[in-house]
Design brief:
4 helices, 6 strands, six-stranded mixed sheet
Length: 117
Amino acid sequence: MRFLLDENLHPAAASLLKEQGHDALHVREARLLGQPDRRLIEFANQEDRLFVTLDLDLAISAGEIKTGLILIRLPRRLASRNLPSLLADALSKLSQADLSGKITVIAPGSIRSRPLS
């Protein structure tokens, strides 16, 4: 699967996904650090990548996301260093069809999904 990881995720998450055979790109690698959400989504759509973020306040409308959105919810008590393995574990249970065209929320012990439109 192809992913674009937001700057609020550590680049190690992209590295771990690459080790698992995914085509994962962190916004730092794409030279998109500091770009508005709209630009990140535009890039994800152009590159056919699912956008992965922790951001609950994306400054876009749902119709702008064509590929899919993965929102990671990490409780404060869980250290951010656990995030890459949480994401990798969840993705090992999902297929491209499970994620494409959907908003998927991944949290410890939970995966929820709904269509974008």
